[in-house]
């Protein structure tokens, strides 16, 4: 932890110097502007690192959690997943899109050298976040019986999750404020600290309740979900320390502002709400689709055949919880990129530079493909041993197939995350919401026949069609407005796809050879996964560096990595 803190401190200072130089350039209107691609790469690196480490922590806990729950594992995981789906929707409603809206508007006012307005905007946003957080937490706590879908076990789980909603809006809003300054490091480290504390608490309580006290599995799940509140307090503390140690820097920016704009408090409230409301729908997009699955899967399956509730809970855990935990590791890559690109696009949109916007859109798509496609294909290739490592042999063949299909689907989910953020960055929120509604209607129309005839694969296929329609409509709209250079993107996409397919084939071969080891144990499959990740991952990195594909997407700085790896 000491080493991590030291590294984080140094990188914080580097980022501050970059941001300070950037702001000085804007204030004096002299010198060259900081390259937007470099900003996007640097910001994405921080957010990607924070998201990946957080998601990995959020997945690794599954192994001991699974062991300690024993025969109650699938039931417990289904309960955990159902509770978190509902919680995620309420949390998005509580946050009300304010953090992303704050990041966007702070970047807008900073581009005008009006840092004083940015501070006032943050304070007004904080007031909104606290009020909505308290209101939604009370609704979730006292209204829990209304949202269970007939599962009484969900009530204590929702009660425990309501506490987190009191804390997370303030934490998320503060992250948005820093992101508006292009400072992604505090958000990344806060996110990691939040997840680490959460996982430690949930594992400790699961072990004590299930193994030491031999208690009730519902109580253990409730404590595991209460860990969200404990982790949130840790994440907020990291942000508070960051601001306190740099308070003089932020005050200096305010003191040197133009102070030409006088924005009334009521106008700030209106700006926040106008920007935030569409973020609720778009930010909750994946969660809304998951809730559709949660509330429709069992009723449709009961019509399709005679299944017990326990069996349907197991199936839901396989496609709606287990696979989701793992694919969200790769989707977090897209989420990190989405958070980074919104304030950058907002600045370009404020300046009215359509060519710059077009370039940033192309960069965003290419960076998304560069990390998402190989990650998703790689996970699909090792789906069987990966599933055995995390979830054991329960429904082994079906679970592995669902994980592989979900891995392919994660490319669409990640793409939706990015294109929705792009629309928000250029203030096309209402249009993006309309496109999402169209995709949701497609999902609803296809849900019943696909689930009825295809079982656990039905919800995933319906989701794929829904998000495909939404993504197509958004990308078409962006092209109509800013003339995206698809020829430029396609050439590099071909290189990414070809290299990713090679990575997939290599990982698949290693996973297939691993089956001859003759063991279904976790340790053996963990070794297979690690060997596949290291060898196939190095193949991808080596190839994109050797062919200079990485340079064209990530910029000239990547040459330093090539030299360190002795690739010529």
Automatic annotation (TrEMBL):
Organism: Levilactobacillus senmaizukei DSM 21775 = NBRC 103853
Transmembrane stretches, start-end: 56-74, 86-107, 128-147, 153-174, 195-213, 225-244, 272-292, 326-345, 365-386, 398-420, 432-450, 456-475, 496-517, 523-545
Highest taxon, organism lineage: Bacteria
Protein name: Polysaccharide transporter
Pfam families associated with the record: Polysacc_synt
GO cellular component, one term: plasma membrane
UniProt KW keywords: Cell membrane, Membrane, Transmembrane, Transmembrane helix
Phylogenetic classification of the source organism: Bacteria, Bacillati, Bacillota, Bacilli, Lactobacillales
Topology term for the membrane: Multi-pass membrane protein
């Amino acid at each position: 932890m000491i080493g991590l803190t030291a590294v984080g401190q140094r990188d914080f200072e580097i980022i501050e110097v970059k941001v300070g130089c950037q702001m000085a350039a804007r204030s004096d209107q002299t010198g060259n502007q900081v390259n937007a691609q470099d900003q996007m790469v640097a910001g994405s690196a921080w957010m990607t690192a924070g998201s990946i480490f957080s998601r990995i922590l959020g997945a690794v806990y599954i192994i001991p959690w699974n062991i300690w729950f024993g025969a109650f594992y699938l039931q417990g995981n289904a309960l955990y997943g159902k509770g978190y789906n509902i919680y995620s929707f309420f949390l998005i409603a509580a946050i009300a899109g304010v953090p992303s809206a704050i990041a966007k508007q702070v970047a807008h006012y900073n581009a005008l050298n009006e840092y004083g307005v940015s501070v006032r905007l943050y304070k007004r946003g904080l007031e909104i976040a606290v009020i909505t957080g308290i209101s939604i937490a009370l609704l979730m706590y006292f209204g829990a019986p209304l949202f269970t879908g007939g599962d009484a076990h969900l009530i204590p789980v929702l009660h425990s999750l309501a506490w987190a909603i009191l804390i997370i809006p303030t934490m998320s809003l503060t992250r948005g404020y820093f992101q508006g300054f292009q400072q992604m490091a505090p958000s990344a480290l806060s996110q990691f600290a939040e997840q680490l504390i959460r996982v430690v608490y949930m594992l400790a309580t699961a072990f004590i309740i299930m193994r030491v006290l031999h208690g009730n599995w519902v109580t253990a799940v409730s404590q595991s979900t209460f860990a969200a509140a404990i982790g949130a307090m840790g994440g907020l503390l990291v942000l508070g320390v960051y601001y306190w140690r740099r308070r003089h820097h932020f005050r200096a920016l305010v003191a040197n502002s133009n102070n030409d704009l006088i924005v009334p408090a009521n106008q700030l409230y209106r700006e926040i709400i106008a920007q935030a409301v569409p973020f609720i729908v778009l930010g909750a997009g994946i969660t809304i689709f998951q809730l559709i699955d949660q509330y429709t899967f069992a009723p449709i399956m009961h019509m399709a055949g005679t299944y017990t509730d326990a069996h349907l809970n197991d199936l839901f855990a396989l496609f709606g919880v287990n696979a989701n935990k793992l694919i969200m590791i790769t989707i977090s890559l897209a989420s990190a990129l989405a958070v980074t690109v919104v304030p950058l696009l907002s600045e370009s949109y404020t300046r009215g530079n359509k060519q710059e916007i077009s370039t940033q859109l192309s960069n965003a798509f290419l960076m998304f493909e560069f990390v998402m496609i190989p990650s998703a294909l790689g996970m699909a290739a090792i789906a069987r041993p990966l599933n055995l490592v995390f979830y054991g042999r329960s429904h082994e063949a079906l679970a592995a197939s669902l994980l592989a299909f979900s891995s392919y689907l994660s490319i669409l989910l990640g793409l939706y995350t990015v294109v929705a953020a792009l629309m928000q960055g250029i203030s096309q929120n209402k249009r993006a919401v309309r496109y999402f509604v169209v995709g949701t209607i497609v999902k609803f129309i296809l849900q019943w026949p696909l689930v009825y005839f295809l079982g656990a694969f039905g919800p995933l296929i319906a989701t794929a069609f829904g998000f495909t329609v939404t993504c197509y409509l958004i990308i078409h709209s962006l092209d109509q407005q800013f003339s995206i250079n698809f020829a430029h993107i396609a050439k590099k996409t071909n290189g990414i796809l070809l290299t990713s397919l090679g990575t997939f084939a290599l990982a698949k071969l290693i996973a297939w050879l691993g089956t001859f080891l003759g063991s279904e144990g976790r340790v053996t499959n963990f070794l297979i996964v690690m060997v596949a990740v290291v060898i196939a991952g190095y193949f991808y990195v080596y190839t994109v560096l050797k062919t200079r594909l990485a340079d064209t997407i990530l910029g000239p700085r990547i040459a330093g990595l090539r030299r360190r790896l002795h690739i010529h």
